[in-house]
Amino acid sequence: MNIRTLFDEVKLGDLTLKNRIIMAPLTRMRSKQPGNIPFELNAKYYAQRATAGLIISEATQVCEEGQGYPGTPGIHSEDQVNGWKLVTDAVHKAGGKIFCQLWHVGRISHSSFHGGAPVAPSPIKPTGGTFTADWKQVPFETPRALLTEEIPQIVNYYKQGALNAKAAGFDGVEIHGANGYLLDQFLQDGTNKRDDNYGGSIENRARLLLEVVDEVYKVFERVGVRLSPYGTFNDMSDSDPLGLFSYVLRELSKREIAYAHLIEPRSTNAGGKEGEVEGAPITSKMFRDLYEGTLISAGGYTPELAKEAIESGYADCIAFGRWFISNPDLPDRIKNGASLNKYDRSTFYGGGEKGYTDYPASS
């Protein structure tokens, strides 16, 4: 019997990836200002990492009200589309493939970005704080609930984002339905207290995500969806996550999207390293049989645990985040058993080349 490896090819619809090592979407807050425009520095950063089977871009807002952090790029203006074209051209020239992650932060935004209250399914303020447009840390604001008649415009923002991503030369798009942002806020009953067709039952709470998927699919058949069952980031909770995400994944299976991308809950492994998966990937193992397509698993993987997950069949691809920050040639390092560069957390967000494009490749 042939055992699958991280270095086998894999198909995403009609797209063939050269390996099963995915670069996870990583917010780095380094777009050109004003305008949240990707530029040459971003193109260099992504091209350095083109040995990944697939690069998923940093989260990219589909509209002005969807921004929640300073310096994050958008995909809703002509200048942003042209900026992303620099990135996709560089990645393709280096032999890589790249999807654009479409994003609306919902209640995690701040009025300083767009002059109005953040929007959400319900007017529930998250605990904790956020950044303003000028990088100040402040408490979250109470969002306003979207009116039912406003929801079609939200769907249209994602569809237009997909159209713009196609014009910018991306190979596909990933819909960000995870980590406590707008679509996740509609999914989970800790944040969704609506009494219209977008609240109450699991079917109603999943309606917005699935409407977005259906409209984006009309633009790009290569559509992935990122989900975070059991995730608590951004003050998220649900009374029945197994029932909720089982329904969502069955519905995504019916739509034959390119992939589902599941984030493993953060844990502390036996070695005491926070954020690494302990043993088998819990979420992927739970939901594997419910989703018939390609399944990507993400969340603190080491190369060793990634190999185990692929060989076991719990996942078809593994997404690495922080290790791709500090190791632009991560697939080659894993394949050759080379040591990994340590990452510097202090340079994760904002800044210039330091901690972004200056990590060395292995000799």
Topology summary:
Blueprint: E1 10-12, E2 15-17, E3 21-23, H1 40-48, E4 54-61, H2 78-93, E5 98-103, E6 119-120, E7 129-131, E8 137-139, E9 144-145, H3 151-167, E10 172-176, H4 182-187, H5 202-205, H6 207-219, E11 223-227, H7 241-255, E12 259-263, H8 282-287, E13 294-298, H9 303-312, E14 317-320, H10 322-326, H11 330-336
Parallel strand pairs: 3-4, 3-14, 4-5, 5-10, 6-9, 10-11, 11-12, 12-13, 13-14
Antiparallel strand pairs: 1-2, 7-8
Helix pairs in contact: 1-2, 3-6
What does this structure look like?
- The chain has 363 residues and is α/β, with parallel strands linked by helices.
- It has helices at residues 40-48, 78-93, 151-167, 182-187, 202-205, 207-219, 241-255, 282-287, 303-312, 322-326, 330-336; strands at 10-12, 15-17, 21-23, 54-61, 98-103, 119-120, 129-131, 137-139, 144-145, 172-176, 223-227, 259-263, 294-298, 317-320.
- It contains eleven helices and 14 strands.
- The strands form four sheets. It has an eight-stranded parallel β-barrel, surrounded by five helices. Strands 1-2 form a two-stranded antiparallel sheet. It has a two-stranded parallel ribbon with strand order 6-9.
- Strand 3 (21-23), helix 1 (40-48) and strand 4 (54-61) form a beta-alpha-beta unit.
